[in-house]
Specification:
The protein is 26% helix and 26% strand. The protein is α/β, with parallel strands linked by helices and 281 residues long. Helix 5 packs parallel to helix 6.
């Protein structure tokens, strides 16, 4: 049985279709003091797959509650974290900070037999779980919704995303790859990117990253490209988090299209990761 968290209802439905497994209806409500409650009336069977993007503190809590239901009613519990919140805090950047990804992973581990997560910022985050955890690479899915572009340049906004850009290019079937040098000031959050070597004048570019969160990384890259007379700029990412005014920032920076997957369910989630996740379940 597939048990969806509130933030992953479309993906859970696609997974239920792909695996031909029942999709649980989760009833949610609140106690008078505002605390969250949920119920899975049909819970019971061999295996529960809890699918929950932990895009907020409330989503983290909901996941723990759903795992608790599943642990009581099923022989095996698998947890799918399409988007793992706090995964980017995978080390203490300054003295006195927690390793938030580790704290979250330990909590999630208590209610499951294994974990699948999609394109975490660093696959090493899997080591923080106390149960087996696998990182699923959904980058190849990003090629599908891209428009037809003649000889595009697939650009990563930093060196860490170059493999992602290469995977999208391979799935797209044509084009070159390159990357920008990025630096981020961890006190102010300000991002600056240095242009890549490839000449982009008049050339259409697909910017590829694992996540668009505040949009600072992408909008800096887009500005650099327009300063160099780029053709059209298309943006794609696995996790379209699009926090605060990120969507507006990208529009104002000048993009022809924006695409993401359903690891984070947003209006731009134009392709599902269900096929690649289903293969691992
Ligand atoms: C960091 O290295 C990631 O790959 C992304 O580039 C980054 O997290 C995106 O965040 P934002 O949209 O806030 O710049």
């Amino acid at each position: 049985m597939i048990i969806p968290g509130s933030a992953s209802q479309s993906l859970a439905a696609s997974l239920a279709d792909a695996l031909d497994e029942p999709l649980a209806t989760v009833e949610t409500d609140r106690f008078a003091d505002g605390e969250f409650k949920c119920r899975v009336p049909e819970a019971g069977g061999d295996r529960a797959v809890v699918v929950a993007a932990t895009t907020s503190a409330e989503a983290h809590l909901e996941l723990l509650l759903l795992q608790d239901v599943a642990g009581e009613a099923f022989d095996e519990v698998v947890t799918v974290l399409p988007y793992m919140g706090y995964a980017r805090q995978d080390r203490a950047f300054r003295e006195g900070e927690p390793v938030s990804a580790r704290a979250v992973a330990r909590a999630v581990s208590t209610g499951t037999d294994r974990v699948l997560t999609v394109n975490p910022h660093e696959p090493t985050v899997c080591e923080f779980f106390d149960v087996p955890c696998e990182a699923v690479d959904a980058a190849s899915r990003l090629a599908e919704p891209l428009p037809d572009v003649d000889d595009p340049l697939f650009l990563a906004p930093d060196e860490g995303a170059i493999e992602l850009a290469a995977t999208v290019r391979d799935a797209y079937g044509t084009g070159a790859t390159d990357y920008f040098e990025k630096t981020r000031d961890y006190d102010t959050g300000e991002v600056s990117v240095e242009p890549a070597d490839t000449d982009v004048a008049g050339r259409d570019v697909v910017l590829v990253d694992d996540i668009v969160a505040t949009g600072s990384t992408m909008s800096s890259a887009i500005e650099q490209l327009h300063a160099r007379d780029v053709g059209e700029v298309h943006v794609t990412c696995v996790h379209p988090m699009l926090a605060a005014s990120a969507r507006t920032k990208l529009a104002n920076a000048g993009i022809a299209s924006l695409h993401g997957t359903d690891t984070v369910e947003r209006p731009v989630s134009s392709v599902s990761v269900a096929p690649v996740v289903a293969e691992r379940l």
